[in-house]
């Protein structure tokens, strides 16, 4: 299950800048969007990624 969590984190880090640019969200820096994505997939919201 640790490998799946790693794959999810890498995909989120790779896809977040692409999504931000495609949606023309210019007011939100990519770093902030990646932090928000981490909150969403992490323990705070959806709990998709397991803690090590």
Automatic annotation (TrEMBL):
<feature type="transmembrane region" description="Helical">
    <location>
        <begin position="25"/>
        <end position="46"/>
    </location>
</feature>
<dbReference type="GO" id="GO:0015297">
    <property type="term" value="F:antiporter activity"/>
</dbReference>
<feature type="domain" description="Cation/H+ exchanger transmembrane">
    <location>
        <begin position="10"/>
        <end position="51"/>
    </location>
</feature>
<dbReference type="InterPro" id="IPR006153">
    <property type="entry name" value="Cation/H_exchanger_TM"/>
</dbReference>
<keyword id="KW-0812">Transmembrane</keyword>
<protein>
    <recommendedName>
        <fullName>Cation/H+ exchanger transmembrane domain-containing protein</fullName>
    </recommendedName>
</protein>
<dbReference type="GO" id="GO:0016020">
    <property type="term" value="C:membrane"/>
</dbReference>
<dbReference type="Pfam" id="PF00999">
    <property type="entry name" value="Na_H_Exchanger"/>
</dbReference>
<dbReference type="InterPro" id="IPR038770">
    <property type="entry name" value="Na+/solute_symporter_sf"/>
</dbReference>
<dbReference type="GO" id="GO:1902600">
    <property type="term" value="P:proton transmembrane transport"/>
</dbReference>
<keyword id="KW-1133">Transmembrane helix</keyword>
<keyword id="KW-0472">Membrane</keyword>
């Amino acid at each position: 299950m640790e490998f799946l969590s790693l794959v999810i984190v890498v995909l989120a880090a790779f896809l977040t800048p692409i999504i931000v640019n495609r949606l023309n969200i210019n007011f939100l820096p990519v770093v902030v969007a990646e932090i928000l994505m981490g909150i969403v997939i992490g323990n705070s919201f959806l709990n998709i990624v397991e803690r090590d």
